[in-house]
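Check out one such.
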Amino acid sequence: MGLEDRLPKSNGRSALRLSWQKDLDRRDRLPVLARPAPTPPAEARPSRLSATRIELLMRDPYSIYAQYVLRLDVLDPLEADLGAADKGTIIHRALDAFTKAYPDTLPDDAEARLLAFGEEAFGAQVLANPAVKAFWWPRYIRIAQWFLAQEGARRARLAASHTEIKGSLKIPTARGAFTLSAEADRIDLFRTGGYAILDYKTGFVPSKKSVADLTAPQLPLEAAILKAGGFPGVAPGPVVELSYWKLSGGDPPGSIQTDGKLDADALAEAVAEKLTALVQAYELETTPYPAVPRAELAPRFNDYAHLARIKEMVAGHGGRRGGRMSDAATAPKPDPDLIQRRAADPKASVWVAASAGSGKTKVLTDRVLALLVDGAAPDGLLCVTFTKAAASEMANRIHRRLSQWTRLSDAELENAIRRLDGGRVTAGEDEPRPAPVRPGSGPARRAAHPHHPFLLSRRFWAGSRWRHASPPISRPWTNARRRKQWTWHRRRSCVRPWPAGRWAPRWNRSPPARWKAGFPI
Protein backbone atom coordinates (compact mmCIF):
# COMPACT_ATOMS: atom_id res chain seq x y z
CA MET A 1 0.00 0.00 0.00
CA GLY A 2 2.99 2.31 0.43
CA LEU A 3 1.98 4.08 3.65
CA GLU A 4 5.56 4.52 4.86
CA ASP A 5 6.16 7.57 2.68
CA ARG A 6 2.71 9.11 3.27
CA LEU A 7 2.31 8.97 7.05
CA PRO A 8 4.00 11.59 9.23
CA LYS A 9 7.04 10.31 11.06
CA SER A 10 6.34 12.13 14.32
CA ASN A 11 2.75 10.96 14.63
CA GLY A 12 2.31 8.23 17.24
CA ARG A 13 -0.59 6.65 15.35
CA SER A 14 1.55 6.05 12.27
CA ALA A 15 3.17 2.99 13.81
CA LEU A 16 -0.26 1.51 14.51
CA ARG A 17 -1.40 2.07 10.93
CA LEU A 18 1.82 0.58 9.59
CA SER A 19 1.26 -2.52 11.71
CA TRP A 20 -2.21 -2.84 10.17
CA GLN A 21 -0.66 -2.65 6.73
CA LYS A 22 1.81 -5.42 7.56
CA ASP A 23 -1.04 -7.59 8.83
CA LEU A 24 -2.90 -7.11 5.55
CA ASP A 25 0.17 -8.07 3.53
CA ARG A 26 0.90 -11.23 5.51
CA ARG A 27 0.40 -14.42 3.54
CA ASP A 28 -0.11 -16.65 6.54
CA ARG A 29 -3.14 -14.71 7.71
CA LEU A 30 -5.20 -16.20 4.89
CA PRO A 31 -6.73 -19.59 5.73
CA VAL A 32 -5.45 -22.48 3.65
CA LEU A 33 -8.63 -23.99 2.29
CA ALA A 34 -8.64 -27.61 1.26
CA ARG A 35 -9.75 -28.58 -2.20
CA PRO A 36 -13.46 -29.44 -2.17
CA ALA A 37 -13.71 -33.20 -2.56
CA PRO A 38 -17.13 -34.36 -1.33
CA THR A 39 -17.82 -38.07 -0.90
CA PRO A 40 -21.59 -38.58 -1.10
CA PRO A 41 -23.16 -41.94 -0.22
CA ALA A 42 -23.42 -44.57 -2.93
CA GLU A 43 -27.20 -44.27 -3.29
CA ALA A 44 -26.90 -40.53 -4.03
CA ARG A 45 -24.38 -40.94 -6.82
CA PRO A 46 -25.63 -40.74 -10.42
CA SER A 47 -26.35 -44.04 -12.17
CA ARG A 48 -26.84 -42.49 -15.62
CA LEU A 49 -24.68 -39.99 -17.51
CA SER A 50 -24.43 -38.87 -21.11
CA ALA A 51 -21.25 -39.03 -23.17
CA THR A 52 -20.63 -35.30 -22.74
CA ARG A 53 -21.08 -35.62 -18.95
CA ILE A 54 -18.51 -38.42 -18.87
CA GLU A 55 -15.99 -35.96 -20.28
CA LEU A 56 -16.97 -33.48 -17.56
CA LEU A 57 -16.58 -36.22 -14.93
CA MET A 58 -12.98 -36.63 -16.09
CA ARG A 59 -12.21 -32.91 -16.18
CA ASP A 60 -14.17 -31.58 -13.18
CA PRO A 61 -15.90 -34.21 -11.01
CA TYR A 62 -17.16 -31.50 -8.65
CA SER A 63 -19.48 -30.18 -11.38
CA ILE A 64 -21.06 -33.64 -11.65
CA TYR A 65 -21.51 -33.65 -7.87
CA ALA A 66 -23.18 -30.22 -7.90
CA GLN A 67 -25.48 -31.04 -10.80
CA TYR A 68 -26.51 -34.65 -10.11
CA VAL A 69 -26.04 -35.09 -6.36
CA LEU A 70 -26.98 -31.64 -5.10
CA ARG A 71 -29.31 -31.19 -8.12
CA LEU A 72 -28.30 -27.56 -8.66
CA ASP A 73 -29.38 -26.50 -12.14
CA VAL A 74 -28.02 -23.44 -13.90
CA LEU A 75 -30.67 -20.79 -14.46
CA ASP A 76 -30.75 -18.72 -17.61
CA PRO A 77 -30.36 -14.95 -17.08
CA LEU A 78 -33.47 -12.84 -17.36
CA GLU A 79 -34.22 -11.49 -20.85
CA ALA A 80 -31.08 -13.16 -22.18
CA ASP A 81 -30.24 -12.85 -25.86
CA LEU A 82 -29.67 -15.90 -28.02
CA GLY A 83 -26.21 -17.32 -27.49
CA ALA A 84 -23.83 -19.65 -29.27
CA ALA A 85 -25.55 -22.73 -27.80
CA ASP A 86 -28.91 -21.60 -29.22
CA LYS A 87 -27.33 -21.07 -32.63
CA GLY A 88 -25.90 -24.59 -32.55
CA THR A 89 -29.26 -26.08 -31.59
CA ILE A 90 -31.01 -24.27 -34.44
CA ILE A 91 -28.46 -25.37 -37.06
CA HIS A 92 -28.58 -28.96 -35.79
CA ARG A 93 -32.37 -28.91 -36.07
CA ALA A 94 -32.32 -27.61 -39.64
CA LEU A 95 -29.72 -30.11 -40.89
CA ASP A 96 -31.54 -32.96 -39.17
CA ALA A 97 -34.84 -32.07 -40.82
CA PHE A 98 -33.22 -31.78 -44.26
CA THR A 99 -31.33 -35.09 -43.98
CA LYS A 100 -34.43 -36.97 -42.84
CA ALA A 101 -36.53 -35.44 -45.61
CA TYR A 102 -34.02 -36.39 -48.33
CA PRO A 103 -32.06 -39.42 -47.05
CA ASP A 104 -31.04 -40.84 -50.46
CA THR A 105 -30.55 -38.19 -53.16
CA LEU A 106 -30.51 -34.43 -53.05
CA PRO A 107 -33.35 -32.54 -54.76
CA ASP A 108 -32.72 -30.15 -57.64
CA ASP A 109 -33.58 -27.14 -55.46
CA ALA A 110 -31.60 -28.44 -52.47
CA GLU A 111 -30.37 -25.02 -51.38
CA ALA A 112 -33.86 -23.51 -51.37
CA ARG A 113 -35.19 -26.48 -49.38
CA LEU A 114 -32.38 -26.29 -46.83
CA LEU A 115 -32.91 -22.54 -46.40
CA ALA A 116 -36.63 -23.20 -45.88
CA PHE A 117 -35.80 -25.71 -43.14
CA GLY A 118 -33.50 -23.08 -41.67
CA GLU A 119 -36.25 -20.46 -41.59
CA GLU A 120 -38.50 -22.96 -39.86
CA ALA A 121 -35.80 -23.85 -37.31
CA PHE A 122 -34.98 -20.21 -36.58
CA GLY A 123 -38.61 -19.20 -36.35
CA ALA A 124 -40.21 -15.93 -37.40
CA GLN A 125 -39.73 -14.36 -33.99
CA VAL A 126 -36.01 -15.12 -33.90
CA LEU A 127 -35.43 -13.96 -37.47
CA ALA A 128 -37.17 -10.69 -36.60
CA ASN A 129 -34.25 -9.95 -34.28
CA PRO A 130 -31.97 -7.49 -36.14
CA ALA A 131 -28.79 -9.10 -34.81
CA VAL A 132 -29.91 -12.57 -35.92
CA LYS A 133 -31.00 -11.31 -39.32
CA ALA A 134 -27.76 -9.39 -39.87
CA PHE A 135 -25.21 -11.86 -38.50
CA TRP A 136 -26.62 -15.34 -37.94
CA TRP A 137 -28.75 -15.75 -41.06
CA PRO A 138 -25.97 -14.86 -43.57
CA ARG A 139 -23.72 -17.37 -41.79
CA TYR A 140 -26.40 -20.03 -42.03
CA ILE A 141 -26.68 -19.40 -45.78
CA ARG A 142 -22.95 -19.97 -46.19
CA ILE A 143 -23.16 -23.09 -44.00
CA ALA A 144 -26.00 -24.44 -46.13
CA GLN A 145 -24.04 -23.93 -49.36
CA TRP A 146 -20.95 -25.62 -47.92
CA PHE A 147 -23.00 -28.48 -46.45
CA LEU A 148 -24.68 -29.22 -49.78
CA ALA A 149 -21.33 -29.25 -51.57
CA GLN A 150 -20.06 -31.87 -49.12
CA GLU A 151 -23.26 -33.89 -49.31
CA GLY A 152 -23.17 -33.98 -53.11
CA ALA A 153 -19.81 -35.73 -53.02
CA ARG A 154 -20.62 -37.93 -50.02
CA ARG A 155 -24.08 -39.31 -50.78
CA ALA A 156 -22.84 -41.63 -53.54
CA ARG A 157 -20.71 -43.56 -51.02
CA LEU A 158 -23.46 -43.96 -48.40
CA ALA A 159 -25.91 -46.81 -47.99
CA ALA A 160 -27.85 -45.20 -45.11
CA SER A 161 -27.70 -42.17 -42.84
CA HIS A 162 -29.17 -41.70 -39.36
CA THR A 163 -29.37 -38.26 -37.74
CA GLU A 164 -30.03 -37.14 -34.17
CA ILE A 165 -30.37 -40.72 -33.02
CA LYS A 166 -30.33 -41.63 -29.31
CA GLY A 167 -28.60 -44.68 -27.88
CA SER A 168 -27.46 -46.18 -24.59
CA LEU A 169 -25.06 -48.72 -23.14
CA LYS A 170 -25.40 -50.69 -19.88
CA ILE A 171 -22.28 -51.17 -17.77
CA PRO A 172 -22.50 -53.74 -14.94
CA THR A 173 -21.50 -52.48 -11.49
CA ALA A 174 -21.79 -53.65 -7.88
CA ARG A 175 -24.99 -51.63 -7.44
CA GLY A 176 -26.64 -52.92 -10.58
CA ALA A 177 -26.03 -51.22 -13.91
CA PHE A 178 -24.73 -47.84 -14.96
CA THR A 179 -26.30 -46.36 -18.11
CA LEU A 180 -24.26 -44.40 -20.65
CA SER A 181 -26.49 -42.37 -22.97
CA ALA A 182 -25.66 -40.44 -26.11
CA GLU A 183 -27.35 -38.63 -28.97
CA ALA A 184 -25.30 -38.89 -32.16
CA ASP A 185 -25.65 -36.02 -34.58
CA ARG A 186 -25.20 -38.36 -37.51
CA ILE A 187 -24.22 -41.98 -38.25
CA ASP A 188 -23.44 -42.91 -41.87
CA LEU A 189 -23.18 -46.46 -43.20
CA PHE A 190 -20.81 -46.78 -46.17
CA ARG A 191 -21.63 -49.03 -49.11
CA THR A 192 -18.28 -50.73 -48.63
CA GLY A 193 -19.10 -51.51 -44.99
CA GLY A 194 -18.29 -49.73 -41.77
CA TYR A 195 -19.79 -46.76 -40.00
CA ALA A 196 -18.82 -43.11 -39.77
CA ILE A 197 -19.88 -41.09 -36.72
CA LEU A 198 -20.19 -37.35 -37.32
CA ASP A 199 -20.59 -34.54 -34.85
CA TYR A 200 -21.61 -31.03 -35.95
CA LYS A 201 -19.71 -28.30 -34.13
CA THR A 202 -20.62 -24.63 -34.38
CA GLY A 203 -18.00 -23.69 -31.77
CA PHE A 204 -14.88 -25.27 -30.34
CA VAL A 205 -13.63 -28.47 -31.99
CA PRO A 206 -11.49 -30.91 -29.95
CA SER A 207 -8.04 -31.59 -31.33
CA LYS A 208 -7.04 -34.90 -32.90
CA LYS A 209 -4.71 -35.52 -29.97
CA SER A 210 -7.56 -35.07 -27.47
CA VAL A 211 -9.64 -37.64 -29.31
CA ALA A 212 -6.75 -40.10 -29.58
CA ASP A 213 -5.80 -39.94 -25.88
CA LEU A 214 -9.49 -40.05 -24.84
CA THR A 215 -9.53 -36.68 -23.06
CA ALA A 216 -12.32 -35.77 -25.51
CA PRO A 217 -14.18 -39.12 -25.45
CA GLN A 218 -17.56 -38.14 -26.92
CA LEU A 219 -17.16 -39.71 -30.37
CA PRO A 220 -15.27 -42.81 -29.09
CA LEU A 221 -18.06 -43.36 -26.53
CA GLU A 222 -20.69 -43.13 -29.27
CA ALA A 223 -18.62 -45.64 -31.27
CA ALA A 224 -18.64 -48.00 -28.26
CA ILE A 225 -22.43 -47.74 -28.05
CA LEU A 226 -22.70 -48.44 -31.78
CA LYS A 227 -20.48 -51.54 -31.57
CA ALA A 228 -22.63 -52.84 -28.72
CA GLY A 229 -25.85 -52.31 -30.70
CA GLY A 230 -27.06 -49.51 -28.45
CA PHE A 231 -28.56 -47.34 -31.21
CA PRO A 232 -32.04 -48.60 -32.18
CA GLY A 233 -32.38 -49.28 -35.87
CA VAL A 234 -28.62 -49.39 -36.42
CA ALA A 235 -27.03 -52.83 -36.66
CA PRO A 236 -23.76 -53.34 -34.76
CA GLY A 237 -20.69 -53.07 -36.91
CA PRO A 238 -17.14 -51.74 -37.18
CA VAL A 239 -16.49 -48.00 -36.96
CA VAL A 240 -14.07 -46.71 -39.60
CA GLU A 241 -14.39 -42.93 -39.24
CA LEU A 242 -14.83 -40.35 -36.46
CA SER A 243 -15.33 -36.85 -37.86
CA TYR A 244 -16.07 -33.38 -36.58
CA TRP A 245 -17.81 -31.02 -39.01
CA LYS A 246 -17.10 -27.48 -37.97
CA LEU A 247 -19.92 -25.19 -39.13
CA SER A 248 -18.85 -21.59 -38.52
CA GLY A 249 -20.29 -19.76 -41.52
CA GLY A 250 -17.14 -17.67 -41.78
CA ASP A 251 -14.29 -18.00 -44.23
CA PRO A 252 -14.28 -20.91 -44.89
CA PRO A 253 -17.88 -21.68 -43.91
CA GLY A 254 -17.00 -25.16 -42.71
CA SER A 255 -14.30 -27.78 -42.39
CA ILE A 256 -14.01 -31.51 -41.69
CA GLN A 257 -11.59 -32.86 -39.09
CA THR A 258 -10.85 -36.56 -39.47
CA ASP A 259 -7.78 -38.40 -38.24
CA GLY A 260 -6.97 -40.86 -41.01
CA LYS A 261 -4.28 -42.54 -38.90
CA LEU A 262 -6.69 -43.28 -36.05
CA ASP A 263 -8.11 -46.79 -35.65
CA ALA A 264 -11.65 -45.83 -34.62
CA ASP A 265 -12.72 -49.41 -33.96
CA ALA A 266 -9.83 -50.10 -31.59
CA LEU A 267 -10.38 -46.74 -29.89
CA ALA A 268 -14.01 -47.68 -29.22
CA GLU A 269 -12.93 -50.87 -27.49
CA ALA A 270 -10.32 -49.02 -25.41
CA VAL A 271 -12.75 -46.35 -24.25
CA ALA A 272 -15.27 -49.03 -23.20
CA GLU A 273 -12.69 -50.60 -20.90
CA LYS A 274 -11.65 -47.25 -19.41
CA LEU A 275 -15.26 -46.23 -18.90
CA THR A 276 -15.98 -49.44 -16.99
CA ALA A 277 -13.02 -48.78 -14.67
CA LEU A 278 -14.08 -45.14 -14.18
CA VAL A 279 -17.69 -46.02 -13.34
CA GLN A 280 -16.71 -48.75 -10.93
CA ALA A 281 -14.31 -46.38 -9.16
CA TYR A 282 -17.05 -43.78 -8.62
CA GLU A 283 -19.37 -46.49 -7.28
CA LEU A 284 -17.24 -46.56 -4.11
CA GLU A 285 -18.25 -44.19 -1.33
CA THR A 286 -14.59 -43.44 -0.64
CA THR A 287 -14.05 -41.96 -4.12
CA PRO A 288 -14.36 -38.15 -3.89
CA TYR A 289 -15.55 -35.65 -6.48
CA PRO A 290 -12.64 -33.15 -6.50
CA ALA A 291 -12.75 -29.78 -8.23
CA VAL A 292 -10.55 -29.68 -11.36
CA PRO A 293 -7.97 -32.30 -10.33
CA ARG A 294 -5.75 -31.50 -13.33
CA ALA A 295 -5.31 -27.93 -14.54
CA GLU A 296 -4.43 -28.98 -18.10
CA LEU A 297 -7.79 -30.76 -18.37
CA ALA A 298 -9.91 -27.96 -16.90
CA PRO A 299 -13.19 -27.49 -18.78
CA ARG A 300 -13.47 -24.46 -21.02
CA PHE A 301 -16.75 -23.44 -19.34
CA ASN A 302 -17.50 -24.17 -15.68
CA ASP A 303 -20.95 -23.34 -14.34
CA TYR A 304 -20.03 -24.37 -10.79
CA ALA A 305 -16.60 -22.76 -10.39
CA HIS A 306 -17.98 -20.24 -7.88
CA LEU A 307 -19.28 -23.07 -5.69
CA ALA A 308 -15.86 -24.72 -5.66
CA ARG A 309 -14.36 -21.37 -4.46
CA ILE A 310 -11.22 -21.91 -6.47
CA LYS A 311 -10.08 -18.29 -6.19
CA GLU A 312 -10.22 -18.41 -2.40
CA MET A 313 -8.19 -21.59 -2.35
CA VAL A 314 -5.53 -20.08 -4.57
CA ALA A 315 -5.34 -16.97 -2.36
CA GLY A 316 -5.16 -19.10 0.78
CA HIS A 317 -2.27 -21.16 -0.51
CA GLY A 318 -0.53 -17.95 -1.52
CA GLY A 319 1.63 -19.65 -4.10
CA ARG A 320 3.86 -21.29 -1.47
CA ARG A 321 5.93 -24.21 -2.57
CA GLY A 322 4.09 -27.45 -2.29
CA GLY A 323 0.77 -25.74 -1.60
CA ARG A 324 -0.08 -24.29 -4.98
CA MET A 325 -3.45 -25.33 -6.29
CA SER A 326 -3.56 -27.31 -9.51
CA ASP A 327 -6.62 -25.80 -11.13
CA ALA A 328 -7.62 -23.53 -13.94
CA ALA A 329 -7.29 -20.40 -11.84
CA THR A 330 -3.55 -20.94 -11.42
CA ALA A 331 -2.91 -21.56 -15.10
CA PRO A 332 -1.26 -18.67 -17.00
CA LYS A 333 -3.84 -16.28 -18.37
CA PRO A 334 -3.68 -15.25 -22.04
CA ASP A 335 -2.47 -11.75 -22.79
CA PRO A 336 -5.64 -9.60 -23.14
CA ASP A 337 -3.83 -7.11 -25.38
CA LEU A 338 -2.84 -9.89 -27.76
CA ILE A 339 -6.41 -11.20 -27.86
CA GLN A 340 -7.77 -7.71 -28.54
CA ARG A 341 -5.23 -7.15 -31.33
CA ARG A 342 -6.26 -10.42 -32.97
CA ALA A 343 -9.94 -9.44 -32.72
CA ALA A 344 -9.14 -5.98 -34.15
CA ASP A 345 -7.71 -7.45 -37.36
CA PRO A 346 -10.04 -6.29 -40.17
CA LYS A 347 -9.26 -9.44 -42.16
CA ALA A 348 -10.77 -11.66 -39.46
CA SER A 349 -14.46 -12.25 -38.79
CA VAL A 350 -14.87 -12.51 -35.04
CA TRP A 351 -17.60 -12.69 -32.41
CA VAL A 352 -16.80 -10.72 -29.28
CA ALA A 353 -18.63 -11.70 -26.08
CA ALA A 354 -17.42 -9.74 -23.07
CA SER A 355 -18.73 -7.79 -20.14
CA ALA A 356 -18.95 -4.01 -19.93
CA GLY A 357 -15.65 -2.20 -19.67
CA SER A 358 -13.57 -5.08 -21.02
CA GLY A 359 -12.52 -3.37 -24.26
CA LYS A 360 -15.19 -4.10 -26.88
CA THR A 361 -15.33 -0.48 -28.05
CA LYS A 362 -11.53 -0.40 -28.25
CA VAL A 363 -11.57 -3.44 -30.52
CA LEU A 364 -14.11 -1.80 -32.82
CA THR A 365 -12.24 1.49 -33.01
CA ASP A 366 -8.96 -0.34 -33.66
CA ARG A 367 -10.59 -2.18 -36.57
CA VAL A 368 -11.75 1.12 -38.05
CA LEU A 369 -8.32 2.69 -37.60
CA ALA A 370 -6.63 -0.32 -39.18
CA LEU A 371 -8.91 0.00 -42.21
CA LEU A 372 -8.13 3.71 -42.47
CA VAL A 373 -4.40 3.03 -42.31
CA ASP A 374 -4.79 0.50 -45.13
CA GLY A 375 -6.37 3.21 -47.26
CA ALA A 376 -10.09 2.56 -46.89
CA ALA A 377 -12.32 5.56 -47.53
CA PRO A 378 -14.09 6.79 -44.37
CA ASP A 379 -17.43 7.10 -46.14
CA GLY A 380 -17.14 3.45 -47.18
CA LEU A 381 -17.10 2.09 -43.62
CA LEU A 382 -20.30 1.04 -41.83
CA CYS A 383 -20.29 0.54 -38.07
CA VAL A 384 -23.56 -0.76 -36.62
CA THR A 385 -24.26 -0.03 -32.95
CA PHE A 386 -27.37 -0.59 -30.87
CA THR A 387 -27.34 2.84 -29.21
CA LYS A 388 -26.51 6.37 -30.29
CA ALA A 389 -24.28 6.73 -27.25
CA ALA A 390 -22.08 3.85 -28.46
CA ALA A 391 -21.80 5.39 -31.93
CA SER A 392 -20.88 8.75 -30.42
CA GLU A 393 -18.27 7.14 -28.19
CA MET A 394 -16.69 5.37 -31.16
CA ALA A 395 -16.57 8.58 -33.18
CA ASN A 396 -15.03 10.50 -30.30
CA ARG A 397 -12.36 7.87 -29.75
CA ILE A 398 -11.43 7.76 -33.43
CA HIS A 399 -11.23 11.58 -33.57
CA ARG A 400 -9.09 11.59 -30.46
CA ARG A 401 -6.69 8.95 -31.74
CA LEU A 402 -6.28 10.57 -35.14
CA SER A 403 -5.70 13.94 -33.52
CA GLN A 404 -3.01 12.40 -31.33
CA TRP A 405 -1.35 10.74 -34.32
CA THR A 406 -0.92 14.03 -36.13
CA ARG A 407 1.20 15.28 -33.25
CA LEU A 408 3.54 12.31 -33.03
CA SER A 409 7.06 12.03 -34.29
CA ASP A 410 7.98 9.44 -36.92
CA ALA A 411 9.10 6.80 -34.41
CA GLU A 412 6.08 7.36 -32.17
CA LEU A 413 3.71 7.15 -35.14
CA GLU A 414 5.36 3.91 -36.26
CA ASN A 415 4.84 2.46 -32.78
CA ALA A 416 1.19 3.54 -32.74
CA ILE A 417 0.58 1.91 -36.11
CA ARG A 418 2.32 -1.29 -35.02
CA ARG A 419 0.09 -1.59 -31.96
CA LEU A 420 -2.90 -2.00 -34.26
CA ASP A 421 -1.55 -5.14 -35.96
CA GLY A 422 0.29 -6.55 -32.93
CA GLY A 423 3.74 -5.66 -34.22
CA ARG A 424 6.72 -5.15 -31.95
CA VAL A 425 6.79 -1.66 -30.47
CA THR A 426 10.18 -0.04 -30.67
CA ALA A 427 11.61 2.66 -28.45
CA GLY A 428 14.29 4.90 -29.90
CA GLU A 429 15.09 2.44 -32.65
CA ASP A 430 17.04 3.86 -35.55
CA GLU A 431 15.00 2.91 -38.60
CA PRO A 432 15.72 4.02 -42.18
CA ARG A 433 13.76 7.11 -43.08
CA PRO A 434 12.56 8.00 -46.57
CA ALA A 435 14.51 10.66 -48.35
CA PRO A 436 13.14 14.22 -47.94
CA VAL A 437 10.74 15.23 -50.65
CA ARG A 438 10.41 18.79 -51.78
CA PRO A 439 6.99 20.42 -51.95
CA GLY A 440 5.28 19.55 -55.14
CA SER A 441 2.36 17.62 -56.48
CA GLY A 442 1.72 14.14 -57.73
CA PRO A 443 2.61 10.72 -56.34
CA ALA A 444 6.05 11.85 -55.16
CA ARG A 445 4.45 13.81 -52.34
CA ARG A 446 2.94 10.64 -50.92
CA ALA A 447 6.40 9.27 -50.16
CA ALA A 448 6.92 11.87 -47.42
CA HIS A 449 5.79 9.36 -44.76
CA PRO A 450 4.74 5.68 -44.93
CA HIS A 451 1.47 6.04 -43.01
CA HIS A 452 0.11 9.54 -42.72
CA PRO A 453 -0.46 10.67 -46.37
CA PHE A 454 -4.05 9.47 -46.34
CA LEU A 455 -4.83 10.15 -42.67
CA LEU A 456 -3.61 13.73 -43.06
CA SER A 457 -5.04 14.36 -46.51
CA ARG A 458 -7.94 16.62 -47.25
CA ARG A 459 -9.72 13.67 -48.91
CA PHE A 460 -9.88 12.07 -45.44
CA TRP A 461 -10.74 15.12 -43.35
CA ALA A 462 -13.23 16.38 -45.94
CA GLY A 463 -15.09 13.03 -46.03
CA SER A 464 -18.80 12.89 -45.32
CA ARG A 465 -18.29 11.52 -41.79
CA TRP A 466 -15.43 13.91 -40.93
CA ARG A 467 -16.48 17.12 -42.64
CA HIS A 468 -17.01 19.01 -39.40
CA ALA A 469 -14.05 17.49 -37.59
CA SER A 470 -12.00 19.83 -35.48
CA PRO A 471 -8.50 20.54 -36.81
CA PRO A 472 -6.04 17.91 -35.66
CA ILE A 473 -3.77 20.50 -33.98
CA SER A 474 -5.68 22.61 -31.50
CA ARG A 475 -3.26 23.67 -28.79
CA PRO A 476 0.48 24.38 -28.47
CA TRP A 477 2.85 21.81 -27.05
CA THR A 478 3.99 22.28 -23.50
CA ASN A 479 6.92 19.92 -23.85
CA ALA A 480 10.08 21.97 -23.97
CA ARG A 481 11.65 19.88 -26.71
CA ARG A 482 8.67 20.23 -29.02
CA ARG A 483 7.79 23.79 -28.14
CA LYS A 484 10.71 24.92 -30.26
CA GLN A 485 9.09 23.38 -33.31
CA TRP A 486 6.10 25.69 -33.06
CA THR A 487 5.69 29.38 -33.79
CA TRP A 488 2.35 30.70 -32.65
CA HIS A 489 1.09 33.98 -34.08
CA ARG A 490 -1.55 36.43 -33.00
CA ARG A 491 -4.05 35.05 -35.44
CA ARG A 492 -3.55 31.54 -34.01
CA SER A 493 -1.98 30.24 -37.18
CA CYS A 494 1.19 28.19 -37.05
CA VAL A 495 3.87 26.54 -39.08
CA ARG A 496 5.29 23.15 -38.19
CA PRO A 497 8.30 21.21 -39.49
CA TRP A 498 7.13 18.23 -41.55
CA PRO A 499 8.57 14.76 -40.64
CA ALA A 500 10.33 14.54 -43.99
CA GLY A 501 12.25 17.77 -43.32
CA ARG A 502 10.20 20.40 -45.14
CA TRP A 503 7.84 23.03 -43.75
CA ALA A 504 4.10 22.77 -43.99
CA PRO A 505 2.13 25.79 -45.28
CA ARG A 506 0.68 28.23 -42.82
CA TRP A 507 -2.84 27.55 -41.68
CA ASN A 508 -5.42 30.26 -41.37
CA ARG A 509 -8.27 30.26 -38.90
CA SER A 510 -11.00 29.55 -41.42
CA PRO A 511 -11.65 25.82 -41.98
CA PRO A 512 -11.90 26.03 -45.81
CA ALA A 513 -8.39 27.39 -46.03
CA ARG A 514 -7.10 24.48 -43.98
CA TRP A 515 -8.61 21.94 -46.27
CA LYS A 516 -7.28 23.71 -49.35
CA ALA A 517 -3.74 24.44 -48.23
CA GLY A 518 -3.23 22.47 -45.04
CA PHE A 519 -2.22 18.87 -45.57
CA PRO A 520 -0.26 17.26 -48.40
CA ILE A 521 -1.99 14.76 -50.65
